Design the sequence.
């Protein structure tokens, strides 16, 4: 499991989940290129890694443009001599319902999440193939990309697209011994702090207290550090045979997400007219329809916020 001698890039690693990933990779022995648009956050992240005995450098630049991807790879090679691991974590949110979502809302999220993942992976994979020593690509997805979520057209599209790209890259990069996987984290972050359902868990985390077992076990919702172990595993030699997967992690839970598969198949000689489909729908298809969105169980009474005074 040691990452001694390895070099990693973690995008969007000035705070939150990305910072936890960078710190864990450094704890396992990797030198880390930290990336953020906030220069102070990036500097603080580097300082935290160095204070713990690790090695780190920072690239302050927005993810999305090819120039940033090139700079990240060049910094890793120039500073630490090689590149073995890429974690694409950078992201932004512009949440609103479909009919209120502007072009800029959509384009901003797609540019950072989807295009940023593509440009960074392309640059890293190109270098790794030329170096001939294999590598690890770890892309960060979301339950929203797997199931959908109200008000997140842009984010759902980006995160679903990332998992689709990972499956393709797993095939394209296999001969170069480069693995490509997606991690689907569920954790207390700035993005989940505003969701009332998670309030008790987020409050406990902010106080440095253990989260209630309902969140950690039943929902698989935990801290940023809870996700880092899977990241470090996928970055290691122990995961050399794991590629093309979407792996969910949070709290006390790890999951393998399935790839989309047909749930029912039917045939009609001569093809299907609209009336043929209508005639067969209830008997052959209706019972197999998929649900959308996350379905959370009711909060236990002791974790519910008290009702406001009348």
Sequence:
């Amino acid at each position: 499991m040691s990452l001694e001698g390895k070099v990693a890039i973690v995008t969007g690693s000035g705070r939150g989940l990305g910072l936890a990933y960078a710190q864990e990779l450094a704890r396992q022995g990797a030198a880390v290129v930290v990336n953020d648009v906030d220069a102070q956050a990036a500097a603080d992240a580097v300082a935290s890694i160095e204070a713990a005995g690790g090695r780190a450098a920072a690239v302050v630049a927005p993810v999305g443009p090819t120039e940033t991807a090139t700079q990240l790879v060049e910094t890793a090679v120039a500073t630490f001599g090689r590149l073995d691991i890429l974690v694409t974590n950078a992201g932004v949110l512009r949440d609103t319902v479909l009919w209120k979502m502007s072009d800029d809302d959509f384009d901003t999220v797609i540019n950072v999440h989807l295009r940023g993942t593509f440009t960074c992976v392309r640059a890293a994979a190109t270098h790794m193939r030329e170096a001939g020593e294999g590598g690890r690509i770890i892309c960060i997805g979301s339950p929203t990309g797997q199931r959908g979520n109200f008000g997140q057209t842009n984010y759902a599209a980006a995160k679903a697209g990332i998992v689709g790209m990972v499956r393709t890259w797993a095939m394209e990069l296999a001969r170069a011994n480069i693995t490509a996987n997606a991690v689907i984290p569920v954790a207390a972050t700035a993005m989940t702090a505003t969701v009332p359902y998670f309030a008790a868990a987020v409050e406990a985390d902010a106080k440095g207290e253990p989260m209630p077992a309902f969140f950690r076990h039943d929902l698989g919702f935990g801290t940023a550090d809870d996700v880092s172990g899977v990241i470090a595993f996928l970055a290691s030699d122990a995961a050399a045979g794991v590629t093309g997967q979407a792996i969910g992690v949070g709290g006390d839970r790890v999951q393998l997400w399935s790839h989309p598969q047909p749930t029912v198949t039917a045939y009609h000689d001569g093809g299907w007219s609209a009336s043929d489909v209508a005639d067969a729908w209830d008997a052959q298809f209706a019972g197999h329809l998929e649900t959308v969105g996350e379905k959370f169980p009711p909060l236990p009474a002791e974790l519910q916020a008290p009702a406001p005074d009348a």
In short: The two ends are 56 Å apart (CA to CA). The longest helix spans residues 103-131. The beta strands are 7-10, 31-36, 56-60, 85-88, 135-140, 178-185, 246-250, 253-257.
